[in-house]
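Repro:
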Amino acid sequence: MPWLKRMAARFFGHGLTRLRAQHRASWLHGQADGFRSGHSAGVDYGYKEGHAEGLEAGRQVLLIRDSRSTEHRPPQVDEHLFDDWRLPLSAELKKRIKVDVGRLLPAHAQPSTAQWKMIFSDTPSTSVVAGAGAGKSTTLVLRILLLNHYFGFELDSMTVVTFTRESRKDFITKLIDVFALWGLPISLKQGRDLVRTFHSRILPMVRSLPGFERLQAFENLSLRAQGDDAEVESNPFDLRINDAQRQQLNACYHGLFTRDQRFRELIQPLSRHGLQLRELERDHPDVQKRMAVTELAAQRDEELCDAIEDLWFRAGAWPIKGIEPSREAFEINGSTFHCHGYIPSLDAWVVLGFDPRESAQLSRPNARLSIRAEWSVKRTLFQAFCRKPLIWLDSYESSRRVLATLAGDAAAGPGFDYKVKGELASAPLLDCFVAAAGFIENLGLDVPTAVSQMSFAKDDPDRLFFEALSLYWRALEDHLLDQKPPVMTYNRMFALFSEHSPENFKLLGDALLRPLSHLMIDEFQDVSPQIVSWLRASLREIRSRGPAMHVGRGAQRSSLLCVGDDWQSIYGWRGSSPSYFMEFGKQFPSPSTTRVMLSENYRSHQHIIDAAEHIVRAAPSIAGKKAKASGAVQELRPVNVLERDDQALGQRLTAHYNRGDSILMLYRRSSDKSLIEAHIQSVVNVDSSLPYASRRLKQLTYHSAKGLQADAVFLLGDCQHLTSSPYKNQVYRMAGLGKSGDAEPYDSAQKDEILRLAYVGITRAVSHCYWYVERPEAQAVNMPKASDRISHGKPFFADHRQAKSST
């Protein structure tokens, strides 16, 4: 609208407004109609114009969509120990092998479906859960036959690991016999090279290092010369210390004691504590029984002192230099007793004991009891009621050790025994050092480092013991390496080639690693963390070397087959743990793993199996385990549980022997063996006169019986958890073993282990099992025991203890 017209309209409208001449409602209505019609027309026009322009622009623009993630993610790490490969087993080859086995092996040795699954496993890793009597040995031999004969894998690319000399010999014999059926002669040397212990594999690795070509293992030291065969045949789990080893231990002790002031400061209080008489709780049954004769014992005490001193004097063991002869009087439970001497350097009193080599029938004139019996009463009363520092010399030999200690003769060793809390008995100090260090190292830990992380009460003598151990163990390792030729413990060897030292593998040639390419390990439930770390590091190195390591050979890549039974893991006290077998897939990561359950038992009848499984089922285990009797049908007989009666046991054992049965007599304590032999002497005399292979009676500890069987098994003693071990609980946590948050993981593991130990004992039986259990008053109070799991309402148990008490 022209500007002049707009001005005229505005003045005209303003005039009308002042005259109030407009109709407001009409105006508003018109305004709204105008807005709607104008808005509609504008939108319609704008849409059409914009749409046309947009279509034209779209013909000239390419739409690009970016699908990339804005998040930074690095590539994944391949943690597998093996390449992703499969054994090329065709259906035709499987059929051919089965035909050969059916033709060459007797009917009773034909594999079951589960055993064929083990033989034909085609994955890089295989876990075989084989219960007691599962027939795993023949199956493992057929697995070796498959790899060697049917696939052309060289025997020197394999290692079969067994834990004991006996099982190694048996397996080599079976290997030679089975291969001979296929017309494949294997020499005894080839068998020994294939079937090994872990220790015989690590030794050549360390000997390949510069300067260690003639290295000796401390565990194999002997005063007589040994060759390589002797080292292979040795038993590294034998914890007894021989003379050659003790010479090295004492020499190291002497050197350290001479030059290290702190070590000397630690030994003095340890010696005083170690020599002191062990305390006995006043509510102990022996104390309660002998308290009644306290006054009578006091009346004859001076005469008893005279009699014992006479014995020591005649033996040339008294007086002792450094001990002042002094008849000091002590008040014991209201009565007066006497000691024999005083040691100023230790501020301790001395009582002479009754040497065990003297006749037990010796007695004072007109005395009703023997000197030995009178001395036992006095000792018990002193243990319960004497709180002065007191050294009780039990034997003439112990007096010589004390004399050496007092004279400061460190060349002969410490000269006193010590008892670490949690151990069942005291032992020479250096033996205690070796045992504690071995346990720590079996868990894959360094001794000084582990000791630095322990904690003890200020007045706990174990605090001083472990500080002394830390100093001594480092000194011992240096001392052994200084020998000509150098010496090293097996644990130290494994540590050199563990996951903590992977760079050391670069020093090894292919020939040393190649035998570990295809590993088959028996009794895998008994491996320790130290061994597991070495195995994983070895397998990782083999994979990293790749195809170049196998050029021109039939055996390519690597594999691991482990056979075990977590219910038979009974060596936790030396550092083994079933957790590595129970968590096999986690501990040995693989692209693919085969799990095999060998649940058929070819040894025992179903009642034996069910009774043993009922005992052990309370312990954590691999899920789904339930064995069933296989083979010849046997009469079902329950496991007979009886009160401890050595005479009745002897009579029943003799009856079985006279019927021609093979017999295992298993005991928990070595003292039980001597007690029972008085009741089976006639059998022992006859059986020991026979050639070893013809003998039908074996007397062993529960732990030594693994792998054995007999028609009749006699179990002497319960399986009970007796002590708590503060230091082992600490290092167990350091090693990552046990349940998270468990303050006593080692003790918890031992409570499970006593159930497994009973399982091992029971499952040695083919037909008969008799379990003689101590009466409740003869067992430790409030400590768990395997017999707590015996069920009275089950057909596989016959508990005669209950029947006897009810009559």
